[in-house]
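Q: What would this chain look like folded?
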Amino acid sequence: MITDDRNVLVGVTGGIAVYKAVDLVRRLVKEDFRVTVVATEAAERFVMPLTFAAVSQQPVLDDHTSWQAGQGWFQHIDAARQAHVLVIAPATANTLAKMAGGMADNLLTAIYLAFRGPVVLAPSMNWAMNEHAATRHNVQTLADRGCIVVEGESGDLACGEEGSGRMAEPEVIMAAVQRAFAGLAHGPLAGRRVVVTAGGTREAVDAVRFLGNRSSGKMGRAVADACYLHGAQVTLVSTVEQGPTAFEVVAVESAAEMAAGVKSLSADADVLVMAAAVADYRPANPVAGKIERADSQTLTLDLERTQDVLADAARPGLLRVAFAAEAGPQLERARRKRAQKGVELLVFNDILAAGIGIGADDNEITIIGSDGDQHVQRAPKSVCAEAIVAAIERELARPT
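A: My prediction, written as structure tokens:
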């Protein structure tokens, strides 16, 4: 349901990536934001205003209509007053330069100067333009002024070349907009550094084979997304490949790699969420080459314990969240595990319960803390993640 505090201005400028902005607007409307598109003259050469009007269900603002009176006499002031978040996607090199220099020669740049809320920028241009010192200077200037810059990825460009400058995917920009709205509330996680782990580790047997587990990494990704949307500075340490994200992802494989990454990243973090399924054992003597099947009818592996990633990262001031995936309703065992680990929160789930096993999109969890247990009935992992983040925020808000 759209409310009066969910108004978004989407500025679109003259870049080939403007077609992605249509999908961005669609996604925002689907999430109950009231979206008004502000198009530059160059943008309308790529996509007609009628397309954005149909998707946003609102009239498009542009330089042809900017002379008309709004609720007051000045459309750029009216639009700036009514919006809560301004997002410009694509943000071309030309528009970024104008914004950095304080120019207001079209409706969009005039709105930017009059706007006083969060500004999200999604740059899009040729790699050479993107990497030019002038563009880098302008982007940094805008970031220093508080703009949220959603950098894209490298890849194939519309000009036929390859490199940086591709606009971020709509879902990533969408997450940045949601984060901007969450930041307006200034919750306990806003500005905090959070490290989240996801996926199952792989322990090498030889150059080809490994010991692993079935963890999909979905729960860890959901927690990372939820922390980001609550304003945290998130780093996701993952053993599984992640899709587009608005935060940093560090790829690891083994328990040792995860331990090293978590130890380093959590040194100045406020929260560590260990959602990954870390192997308890690894081959003591992995083979550098490949074990040949024909060499033996049997194979015996000598296993050794891996390090305790959660325990190694412990330090004063770091709020730690553990996960306990048990085979069966072992809630009392999970409570004991929380006490043994000395963590503030432990998230328990029964992997044998129907529909919430490893790799499922749903989960059913019990969050165990000093105030007792909070049970979350079967729900999408995004809902479970919100409950976990709410518990983290309650812990952070406790008097020290």
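The two ends are 39 Å apart (CA to CA).
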